[in-house]
């Protein structure tokens, strides 16, 4: 049966409202070639689940100890193949966030700072609200993610290098204790 027919069959048999109660990880398993080992970690290579889990927990712990704890555990898809990453619309990037639905990590992005970077974007939404996060300038949103994730690259491609420098100058003035208060200021 083609994927399209499966979709029609699924949506024809199950009232749409019912999907609201299906965990997002299960939705992913239905529509993408990934396995969700639990409700927050999915991968197309189950043999690398332990590695994915360590990256995931390490990033959460890092945020909690150095910035602010993330209250809701995000759904992360760890793609071991480019084919998997492309099926989520990924391209040259190492990882991407699909709205608030999930984070997708490319096979090139299985690194602590990459997972931390995407989780910092979730933290921004948690602390600032989705509207504020969307309205903030890119230098602030991306600069914070590159800086606070401790991205080890001394020189990023432009304009990311500029974003990081601009954020770090701002952060030095504001200080860690006032990070979110200052970020919420109009
Ligand atoms: Zn980013």
What does the model show?
It is a single chain. The chain has ten helices and five strands, in the order H-H-H-E-E-H-E-H-E-E-H-H-H-H-H. A five-stranded mixed β-sheet has the order 1-2-3-5-4, with helices on both faces. The protein has 186 residues and is of the alpha/beta class. Bound molecules: zinc ion. The site of zinc ion (ZN) has 4 residues, from helix 6 and helix 8.
Strand content range: 5-15%
Strand order of the largest sheet: 1-2-3-5-4
Low-confidence stretches: 11-17
Question: Can you tell me the overall shape?
Answer: globular
Keywords:
186 residues; alpha/beta; 5 strands; binds zinc ion
Topology:
Layout: H1 3-13, H2 16-19, H3 24-31, E1 35-36, E2 41-43, H4 49-66, E3 76-78, H5 82-87, E4 95-98, E5 102-105, H6 112-128, H7 130-135, H8 138-148, H9 160-174, H10 179-184
Parallel strand pairs: 2-3, 3-5
Antiparallel strand pairs: 1-2, 4-5
The structure holds zinc ion.
Zinc ion is lined by residues 117, 121, 142, 145.
């Amino acid at each position: 049966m083609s994927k399209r027919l499966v979709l029609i069959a699924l949506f024809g048999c199950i009232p749409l409202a019912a999907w609201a109660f299906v965990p997002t990880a299960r939705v992913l398993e239905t529509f993408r070639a990934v396995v969700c080992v639990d409700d927050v970690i999915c991968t197309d290579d189950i043999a690398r689940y332990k590695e994915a889990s360590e990256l995931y927990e390490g990033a959460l712990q890092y945020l909690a100890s150095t910035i602010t704890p993330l209250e809701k555990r995000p759904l992360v898809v760890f793609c071991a193949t480019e084919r998997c990453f492309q099926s989520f619309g990924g391209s040259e990037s190492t990882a991407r966030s699909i709205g608030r639905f999930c984070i997708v990590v490319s096979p090139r992005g299985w690194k602590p700072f990459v997972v931390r970077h995407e989780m910092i974007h979730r933290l921004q939404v948690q602390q600032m609200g989705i509207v504020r996060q969307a309205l903030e300038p890119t230098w602030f949103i991306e600069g914070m993610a590159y800086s606070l994730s401790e991205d080890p690259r001394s020189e990023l491609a432009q304009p990311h290098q500029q974003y990081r420098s601009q954020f770090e100058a701002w952060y030095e003035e504001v200080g860690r204790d006032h990070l979110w208060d200052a970020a919420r200021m109009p």
